[in-house]
Amino acid sequence: MHRQYAAQPVLSPRYYLDNFLSIIDVVSTRYGDLLTQTEQRWLFTFSSLPLDAKLLTVRLLSRKGCWFRRDKLHYEEIDDIDSAIHDLAKHGVITVTRTPPFVIAADLMTKPELLEHFSAHSLKASAKKSELVATILGLLTEDDNIPPLNTDCLCMSHDVLPIFLLLYFGNSRQDLSQFVLSDLGIYRFESVPLLYADRLFNSRDQVEDWLFLSTLNDDYWQYSEKKDIHSALALINSLPKKPSWPPLAQKWDRLANRLARDAERTGDFSTATFLFTQSGLPPARERLARMAIKQEDCHSASQAVASMLEHPINEDEKDVADRLARQLAKKVSPLSLPFHIQPLATRQYAIETLSLTLEGRVERLAANEFESQGWKVWFCENAVLNALFGLVFWDIIFAPIKGAFLNPFQRSPRDMYSPEFANQRKTLIDERITDFTNGSYSVLDIYDEKEGIANEWVHWGMVDRSLVEAACSTLACDQIIACLNRMLFDTKSNRSGHPDLFMVKDGCCQFVEIKGPGDKLQPHQIRWLNFLNAHDITSKVLYIEPST
Question: Cβ(271)–Cβ(286) under 8 Å?
Fold first, then answer.
């Protein structure tokens, strides 16, 4: 089936100003009382600027950094850039100079410009730019005046964009590009009534703490990408006390877990234990147990495992706890442990082996083999069951629950991956399951109505109508409901681990997980295979071996 798409919309030349105005309108309305006097003055000043100055302001805010060269600014939609610069400087939005600090000037200049500008210092033309900068810094004294640049340098006086974006989106991930993707029709979002009185932040301290943790998190990932574990661990000294506000506490937990894991890898169990003990997110308790086992502290390990078994946060943690419990039972008497050892789950899925010439992905090779046997096959991994979840619960996912939606560019509610999602919508979910059971709710009708609209559960690029139709016609209603309930129980963990292939033939369906040479089943995949077979949904594992 070939989908027909409309011609791509053309953006207005001043689209970015319209988008920015939308942001500051929401921020002023929803969070005016949390803005500083400086931010309020900035908004007042911005509102009084001429059009060209407003356009240039948003252009500069959207670019990386705070310093810009005049000769690099070229915007066709701005009639008079020099006049706009004059207006911005007059109102204190920017400062203009030709003698910025050397480090700033060096960053703005190219290597050839550096060589020419500081030709009196006999610099090596073969040196890298970073080496040239270091050499010049070593030659300059405090009394040296840097020759003026050949172009004006503009500096934004206040970088207000991060705070405005955070208040508008309610997170530190989304930015102005989100508007562009929507304006171009690349993404279409469900229309959800936004309650302007319903806001995420209720104090300026919450905002500042969020921005600070976001900066720490960004620094961590930069060091991590460079494999600079020493600098990453140094961030622990800047990590604030764990906040009491739940949204910020979760953000703190995620960063603390990463730092603690790095500390554990370096053998600093004391620091790792200090951080993991405070974290409320997996794998904190698992790591505490594993460190205790390494140190032969079976008592502490058993306490951590007992806590996981008694109150597991999700299925992954329960599974890990069962494995650690069996590991501890081999080290000490099972009778001395504060929990009962659960027997290994009985395997409920078949295992088959197939020899093939390994050319390309093993999943695609296996799909071709099944197609030769008359099966209609989709290589869809997690897509089919997730799509059923997203389609069956579509309007419930996008229900205007208090605090669930803060901006018009959300693919799911903010509580999608917490137990609160199902708890807060229990009545709606129960009613939907009843309607689905008695046939008064059509998944295919919802597919036709919502196709292409962003939903975190429906991967439109992998899910066509024929796949949904095949699943609905071969899976019994109670089987689908069982799968949906399992995903509702743990939306984060159970949206993955589904078998690779879904196929139908003669009114029957089956799932098949494909494993190539050296590939092993993961615990969450085993859980899904056992679950599907327990509900009479044929699911098996096919190991692909290279043919000799």
Answer: no
**Type of residue at 480:** I
Contacts of 487 (CB under 8 A, 6+ apart): 385, 386, 389, 494, 495
Buried b (16+ CB within 10 A) or exposed e, 405-432: bbbbbbbbbbbbbeeebbebbeeebeeb
Beta pairing partners, 357: none
Q: Are strands 508-515 and 539-546 parallel, antiparallel or unpaired?
A: parallel
Which run of H or of E encompasses 539? strand 539-546
201-336: CATH number: 1.25.40.10
Per-residue pLDDT of the chain (548 residues; tens, 9 = 90+): 444 445 566 788 999 999 999 999 999 999 999 999 999 999 999 999 999 999 999 999 999 899 999 999 999 999 999 999 999 999 999 999 999 998 999 999 999 988 888 887 778 888 898 988 888 888 877 666 788 999 999 999 888 999 999 999 999 899 999 998 888 888 899 999 987 777 899 999 999 999 999 999 999 999 999 999 999 999 999 999 999 999 999 999 999 999 999 999 999 999 999 999 999 999 999 999 999 999 999 999 999 999 999 999 999 999 999 999 999 988 888 777 888 888 877 889 999 999 988 888 999 999 999 999 999 999 999 999 999 999 999 999 999 998 899 999 999 999 999 989 999 999 999 999 999 999 999 999 999 999 999 999 999 999 999 999 999 999 999 999 999 999 999 999 999 999 999 999 999 999 999 999 999 999 999 999 999 999 999 999 999 999 87
Which of 510, 513, 544 lies closest to 373 in space, CA to CA? 510
Q: d(Cα 264, Cα 238) in Å, to the nearest integer? A: 18
Q: What angle do helix axes 161-169 and 15-31 make, rounded to 10 degrees?
A: 70
Q: How many residues does the chain have?
A: 548
DSSP 3-state assignment of 541? strand
List every span in the chain annotated with CATH 1.25.40.10.
Answer: 201-336
Q: Please work out, in degrees rounded to the nearest 5, the angle formed at the alpha carbon of residue 364 by the alpha carbons of 363 and 365.
A: 90
Side chain identity at residue 354, one-letter code: L
What letters, b where the CB count within 10 A reaches 16 and e where it falls short, cover 363-389?
A: bebbbeebeeeebebbbbbbbbbbbbb
Say which residues have a Cβ less than 8 Å from residue 15's Cβ, sequence separation at least 6: 179, 180, 183
Q: For 464-488, give the secondary structure using H, E and C.
A: CHHHHHHHHHHCCHHHHHHHHHHHH
Residue 503 CB: number of other CB atoms within 10 A?
22
Written as six digits, the tokens of 286 are 């698992």
Q: Is the N-terminal amide bond of 517 cis, ω within 30° of 0?
A: no
Beta strand 376-379 pairing with 501-505: antiparallel
Pull the structure tokens for residue 358. Answer: 């390994």
For residues 274 and 288, what is the distance between their CA atoms, to the nearest angstrom?
A: 10
Give the global pTM: 0.87
Token duo for residue 12: 């207005």
